[in-house]
Each structure stands twice: as structure tokens, then as C-alpha cells.
Amino acid sequence: MAVNGDLVREIEELQVAAGAYHDRHQFISDFTYPTDTRIAVNFTCDFDTMLLRRVLNEPPVQLAKGEFGGRVGIWRLIELFDSHGVKATIFTPGRICELYPKAVLAAAASGHEIADHMWEHRVPSEPDLELDHIIKSTEALENLVGKRPAGSRSRHTLAMLKKQGYIYNSHGSAAHLPYYMRDDDPDSDSWMLNLPFHYAIDDAMFFSFAWLNSENAAQRITNPERVLDMWWDAFLQQYEQGGYLNICLHPFVSGRALRIEMLDQLITRMKAKPGVWFPTCEEVARYCLEVFPFRGGK
Amino acid sequence: MPWKEGYTSSDERSLSDADVHWPDGKKCCVSVVVDLSLAMDPEGLKASDFQNSTAEFGLTEGLDQILETFSRFNINATFTVPGAMAEHLSPTLQALHADGCEIAANGFKHEDVSNLEPEEERRRMDLATEILTDVIGTRPEGWFSLPRPNDRYAGGTFSPNTLRLISDAGYSYLGNGLSDDIPYYWVTDFDKSQSLLTMPYYYHFDDQFFLLFPKKGTGLEHADTLFANWVAEFKAQHKRGRFFNMTLHPYAIGWCNRLKLLEDFFRIMNDHDGVWNPTSKACAAYWSEAYPASSTLQLEPSIWKDYPGSLS
């Protein structure tokens, strides 16, 4: 044994890491929907327009590419959702309230949920500043639309979000169905519902050049029909098992006319099936919290 | 932060579909831009860009093939050329010009101008303008700053001074902007309400990003994807009554099966009613008359507040 001591220690370290991460999750094993509902489909829009580009200090043309989302894309998505009676969730960085206030107000007026997407689309590493950003974003959204955001899509410290009244986050994909998650520290009061979204159900993966700084040879820009087929299959697979689908759209990507057409077809097909629920994320979250609350534990 | 500089280049909202009208009751505007540049890298044209068979094809048979296709489908196009290529292409450009095509500038040697000092950028722009004016006998009206295949981003490159310099040099429009899918105004000075008319461009409709991209030999061939994007966007914009631009490179799209897709696209396009297919120059002239910046551009004053710990 002594000759393998170093290797055994490596195994132990991996096991500790795996166990610690697993322990941060509590899954909902007996999930069901109300009678007659087979699936909830959340259309979520990350309305960050050019903010991530600004954070990454990308050149003006990248900002202009994002700007399309604020000037054109968000309006088209609101129009599309309204034409189908779909209530969407618009994850909005607080700063957008100063750049595109009319679009945010229009989305709220149509009954779409306005949720947080980080003050300026980044999470500061300093805890005080992180809290400052959470408060700034929360207040900016609340002051503009008159309702405090209930959810966030971010890597923010969950305990901080919870203290500001947030009831859910929508980030990561440890399960198809909503699940509970906490921060790394088991003693922090941070268990929060997570509404999973997956990068394969994210428009930017297919349509945004240099997405997340990917190299030229790694570009995957494609056409709407191909994505429609993939997402329809994703929907059907979850529909058959009474699951959940969270479709992540960026107004600067999906607001392009050819993709609005694709989404129109996707929603039309979904609506033709019985039992498809198009709520806001907050509605899904409140349903889960009421019917499948956190079961306690650390 | 002055106005929304660094975040925004135009007003908060584009024109709605209902507010967009084209001449003579036409339903949709289609612009075809042909980039004659052979520059592959951000540094712009270099000797090796000309010394390969693909480049040679692009300036000879590839171009002829495209022109033949255009003439069969009655396509009006804008040809963009770097100043440094204009003398080399002089007979070609003169023939195109005589034939009613628009010749516009695509940089001096189609280089990334992001980090040029203003004086140097102006010097290059002036020389490009001078050469093009000499070759075609009239001043170009459009300035383009189109992307190259090996650029980091696919939207073209601009320095903080580019837009102002284009305006000062007397150009009436910038050929490639990403903030709208109809012509729009790129604000150059908020305080003085100055802006430059900008024509929409989007890399999903630019052949170079789908045809052996990023490099011949190892790049991926997605001609079918390019075609699908053209058709989907054209149909969607035609339905909305807006605008569609495709950007072509003869060395790329002129090659056999790819050329067939271009013809298939024009066949679909010509089956639609009310398509207006002007040169970029003609579209710019219409737009600046029908939608002048003075009444179209709705600039809101900034409500941005600076905070410690937040980006300005």
C-alpha cells in the first residue's frame, strides 16, 4: 500500500471533490405537473445586448452586433411571444435599464417576466462589490418596472441573491428538471431552486461568431432549419417524459428575421400538442416551491 | 460617459416594419455587394494573397462567371475594392463602372484600421479615394470596412476615428454596419447631432464564412448552410418589407456548385413580387432623402450614471 500512497491520495482528493459538489444538489425525484400539463416550456431571453462585449473589451463592431438586440431583436421577440400568448422571461442586466428602458418597459407591459442577469453582465470577485452589483441590478429593474425581480440567471453567490429576495436562479444543467442547489459552503443559507438551461438549447451556440471567444476554425454558425430540428427533438424528448425545456435566446441573435420565423414555427408546432404550458420562469419556480419544496438538509 | 459611447452607436429603436417604405411601392430592398479584395488577414493585402490559384480565379473566371449570372438575372451590384488593388484592376473596374455597377472603396489595402493613428488612417483613406477616383473617373460614394476570413470578429474593423474620417472625406455612406437590418444612422457626434448613413451587413449572408472557412485546404465547406440562410432571411425580410444584403467574393462563390446556389437564390428572389435591387449608392440616396437623419434618428439623452466599481 505504501508504494501506492501518492496515487491513493489522488483518488481520495477526487472523491472528496466529487462528493462535495454532488452534496450541493437536491433533485426532485417525484416531479409531476398539474393535471393536463405535460411539459413547461420557458422561453428565456438573455437581454445583455452589448454588455458582455463591453466587459470583455471587444471592439466597436462587436458592440454594434449586440446593439441589434436592443434596437431590433427584443421588440421582435416581444411581438412574437405576444402573438402566441407565450409569457417569456427576460433576463436583464440592470444597466440595460439605462440603455434600453423602453424595451424593458414594453416587455413588462406585455406580461413578460423581468429578471436579473447581473448588473453589468459580470460577477465581481470581491464579495462587497458583488453584493453592491446585485443590489444595483435588483433596484434598477425594480425601479423601472415596479416589481422586484424574483429570479436571476447568473453565477452570483446564492446566499446573496436569497437575501435580496430571489427565489430562483436559472443557470447550469445538472438535471433536466428543476432542482435545488446551494453555494459551496454547507453552512450558508443558500439552497435555491435552479431552472436548468443547457448550452445546446442556446441560440448563440449556433449563430454567434466568436461566441465566448471561440477561434475562427471552431465557428459553428449554421442555418435556422437545422436548429429547429434539434430543438424540436429536444422538446419531443422532454414532452414524452413529462419534463422541462428552457430555451435560451439572445435578442441580438434570435431577433434576426430568419430566426424569428424559425421560432414562430417552433412555437406553432409545440402549441399543436396537448398539455404544453408556456409560463414565465417565476411561475414554474412558484409551482415547484409550493409542490416540491426543499426537503431540508445541508 | 458622454452619451452612450462605447455601448451604443445609434438610437434606441429601429423603424418598425410598417414605417419602412421603398420607392415605387416596392416591397423589399435587396442589395448585392461583391468584394473584390483578396486580403485574408487583418494586416490587409500582401503579395501572397495574389499568388495562389484561388485568387487568380477570383479576379478572372470567377468574376466573369458572377457577372454572367448577374446579367441573366438582372442583378445590380456594388463592387468594393481596396484602393491598393484599383490600379491593378483598372480595366475591370472601368468596364464595371461603364456597365452601371457601383464601385466603392474597401479600405486602402483592406487592412484592420482599429489601431491606426488618426493621421495615418486619414492618409490611407485619402490615397485610396484618390486612386479610385482616378481609375473610375468619379469619386466613390461608399466606404466599406468589410471583414477578412482571418479576422478575430466577423463584422469588419473600425478605429475610434473611422466614422468621422469617412464623413470628413465626403463619403455618403458606410457600407457595413451590424446594428440594424435596414439602413440606419451611426452617430459620430452626439452633441452636434452628426451621424453617417450605414448600410446593414451580417456575416451569416457573407459567402466567405461558409466556403472552406477559415482556410482553403483545412476549412469547412457549408455552401448549403449559406444558401439556407440567404433564402430564410430574404423570405423573412420580404414578408416584413425590409432589406436583405448578401456579400459575395468571386474567388469563393464563383466556383461551380456554389455558383449554382447563387443562381438558385436569384431564381427564388425573382419569383417574389416587389423586389427593389438597387446599388448601395442608389439605396443610400433614396434613404437619405426619404428618411433623413434629422427626422429619423431619435436620440435620447443619456441617463447613465457612473459608480465606483462599475464600468463607465
Descriptive account of the structure:
The complex is a heterodimer of chains A (298) and B (312). Chain A is an alpha/beta fold. Chain A has a single domain, classed as Glycoside hydrolase/deacetylase (TIM Barrel). Chain A has helices at residues 5-22, 51-55, 60-84, 96-99, 101-109, 127-145, 158-163, 204-207, 224-240, 251-254, 257-271, 281-291, and strands at 25-27, 39-46, 89-92, 113-116, 151-152, 168-169, 179-181, 192-194, 244-249, 276-277. The longest helix of chain A has 25 residues, at 60-84. Chain B has 312 residues and is an alpha/beta fold. Chain B has twelve helices and nine strands. In chain B, helix 7 (162-168) links the parallel strand 4 and strand 5. In chain B, helix 2 (53-59) runs parallel beside helix 3 and helix 8 packs parallel to helix 10 (256-270). The longest helix of chain B is centred in the middle third of the chain and has 19 residues, at 118-136. The N and C termini of chain B lie close together (6 Å). At the A-B interface, helix 2, helix 3, helix 5, helix 6 and helix 9 of A face helix 8 of B.
Average pLDDT figure of chain B? 96
Q: Supply the CATH architecture of chain B.
A: Alpha-Beta Barrel
Mass-distribution shape of chain B: globular
- What is the helix content of chain B? 25-40%
Mean pLDDT of chain A: 96
- Subunit organisation of the chains: heterodimer
CATH superfamily of chain A: Glycoside hydrolase/deacetylase
Largest Cβ-defined interface: A-B, 50 and 60 residues
Order of helices and strands of chain A: HEEHHEHHEHEHEEEHHEHHEH
**What structural category arises from helix and sheet content of chain B?**
alpha/beta
Q: How many runs of DSSP E, i.e. beta strands of chain A?
A: 10
Number of domains of chain B: 1
In the sheet with the most strands of chain A, the strands line up as: 1-7-8-6-5
Radius of gyration of chain A: 20 Å
Helical residues, percent of chain A:
40-55%
CATH class of chain A: Alpha Beta
Secondary-structure element pattern of chain B, one letter each: EHHHEHHEHEHEEEHEHHEHH
Beta-strand fraction estimate of chain B: 15-25%
- Given the structure, what is the number of helices of chain A? 12
Task: Provide the gyration radius of chain B in Å.
Answer: 19 Å
